[in-house]
Amino acid sequence: MASVFRLDCCGISPVATHRHRGRKQPIGGSVMKVKRGRRMGFGPVTCTSTSGGGSKSVIGLGDFIGGDLVKFDLGQWLSDVEEHKALAIYTPHEGGYEGRYFTRLRYQGYYFLDLTARGLGDPETTLTKVHPVCPATVGKQPIARWYFPPEVDFRLASLPEDAKGLVVWIIEAQVLSKSELQFLALLPSLRPKVRVIAECGNWRKFMWKPLKEIAGLTPITEP
C-alpha cells in the first residue's frame, strides 16, 4: 500500500491509498498534491487540490513556524504607531498574540500605562485632570471623596530621561462611546509623548487601524 500526503488544518498527514488499474486512489478524504522543485530551497509551497476544480493555494513560511513565534508585520506596526500615534487593534479570541507587539514597543523605549475601559469613567477627566474617586461604603459609613492626579500627566512626570514615551494601552475599549474614542484619538496631539493603543474587538488574526478612522474623525480607507 502506497501513501500520499494530505494538507489539513493540523499540518501534513499521510493518507492511505490503494492502487486500482495502475492509479493511486485515496481511501478517504481529498488529496492535495504538493508541487516540489528539483532543488531544495526556501519559498512558498503551491498546493493543488484534486477535488474541487483543481484550486490552488500558496502556503508561506509563517504557516509552518507558527503564528505566535514570528511576526513579519512588526516593522509596519512600529511605523504605524509613529505615524498615526493612536491605533485601534483587533486581537484573536484565544489571546496572546498582542504580547509580541507589546514587547516590540517596550524594546523601542516606551513605558506603559495599562487601563481597562470598564470603570474608567470619563477618559478626559481621568487621564488629563485632577479627578475625584468615591470609595465603596459599607453600611452607615460616611461617603468620602478622594482626589487623584491625572493618570497620564503623573506617569509622564515620572518617566526616565531616556524613555521614548508613554503608551496608554486600553483593553475592552469596545464599550467606549464614539466621543470617548475621539478623545483618545486626539490625546497624542495634546500630549506629544503619548501613544494610544485601544483594543476595540476581536478578529481572526491580529490587525489594527488608525483610531481616528474607528472614531469617525477621518474617512475609512480600505487596505
Automatic annotation (TrEMBL):
Origin species: Melastoma candidum
Stated name of the protein: Uncharacterized protein
